[in-house]
Amino acid sequence: MGRLAWSQLRYRRARVLALLAGMLVAVTAFTVLTAASRTSQLRTVGAVTAHFRSAYDILVRPEGARTELESRTGTVQPNFLSGIYGGITMAQYHEIQRIPGVQVAAPIAMVGYLMPQVPIIIKLPATAARAHGRHLYRVSATWVSAGGSVRIPQPPSYVYLTSNPLTGQGSYEQLPGGSQASVCNGYPLSSTYPPFSAARQSSLWCWSQVNGLFGQGSWEGLTARRPGLAVTWWFPMLVAAIDPAAEARLDGLNRAVTSGRYLGEHVGLALNAAASGGSTFPVLAADRSGVGEYAAIRVQRLPSPARPPTLDPGVMRKDAAVAGRTVAVTTITAGQAYGHMVSLLTGSRYQDYNQDPTGYWNIDSTRYRRGRNGSLVAVTMRNPASVWTFAVPGLPGPPMDESATAYRTVIEHEFTNSAPVPATPIPRAVGLFDPGKVRVFDPLSAVPLGPYQPVAAAPANAASRKALGGHNLLPSLNMGGYVSQPVQLITTLSALPALERSTVFTGNLHAADPISVIRVRVAGVTGPNPVSLERIKEAAQQIAVRTHLTVDIVTGSSPAPTAISLPAGKFGQPSLRLTEGWVKKGVAVAILSAVDTKSVVLFTLILVVCALFVANSATAAIRGRHQELGVLACLGWTRPRVFATVLGELAVIGLLAGAAGGALSLPLSAALQLRASPVRAILAVPAAVALAVVAGAVPAWLASRSAPVAAIRPPVLASRRGRHPRGITGLAVANVHRTPGRSLAGALSLAIGIAALTLLTAMTLAFRGIIVGSLLGNAVAVQVRGVDYVAVVASVALGVLAVADVLFLNIRERAAELATLRALGWPETALTRLVVTEGAVTGLVGSLAGATLGLAAAAEFAGQFPARLLLAATAAVLAAVLVTVAAALLPAQLLRRLPTAQLLAEE
Question: pTM value?
Answer without folding.
Answer: 0.72
